[in-house]
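Dear V.,

Thank you for sending over the compound details. I've combined the ligand you provided, zinc ion, with the protein sequence from our construct and run the structure prediction for the complex. I'm sharing the raw inputs here so there's no ambiguity about protonation or stereochemistry in the SMILES, which I know was a concern on your side last time.
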Amino acid sequence: MYCIKCGVELADSERVCPLCGTRVFHPDLPCGQGEPPYPPDEHPCHEEVSRIGVMFVVSVCMLLPAVISVLCDWRINGHITWSGFAVGGLVLLYILAALPMWFKQPDPVIFVPVDFAAIALFLLYVNYATGGHWYLSFALPVTGAAALLVCAMVTLLKYLPGAALYICGGALILSGGLAVLVEFLLNLTFGLHDTFLWSIYPLAVGVVLGAMLLVIAVSKPLRRSLHRKFFL
Ligand SMILES: [Zn+2]
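Below is the predicted structure of the protein with zinc ion bound, written out as structure tokens.
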């Protein structure tokens, strides 16, 4: 018996191809019969243990500079000044990069909103610590709009993987719109200009690329010919 995808020779006992992971299919033979060609894997939790060990080391490595900077700041200034930003940045980095790795299969539908909430909280802290007046009129709406867009995209991609082209096309067009929102809020908050100067360019790029993806998604013959040309 041979793998229908990569052509490797398979034992009759295989249920999936050990090389490419494709499900073994034979129209006449029942699946997973016969003597296995190698002994069963006796260390299935090896990867699990090493992952948790690595995550523990990463956590300690990020905790250490946070503690040191707070101690230095406290000793020099008598209260928290610059170390708040350092600790906030480290916490943010930890939530964005390290937290999902604690889980075997991190679910983006859960972690993406958590990430955006962490970014919004960090920006709130920076705004508060620097005495800024830009959080409510700029940082929060921009973070919220980006969060809505990305959360909707990952949720739709997870539950409707067949519609990936439509989802990515729509997301590209909306991210062009997001650039316009950013410039509008920048002008509103900081009184920069009365008109839109730069956001038209990302909007144009987003609309053109997004429309291209939508056309490819709608037109089946076009999709098929691209598939054949680029092996996508
Ligand atoms: Zn294979």
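A first observation: The CA atoms of residues 93 and 136 lie 23 Å apart.

Warm regards,
I. M.
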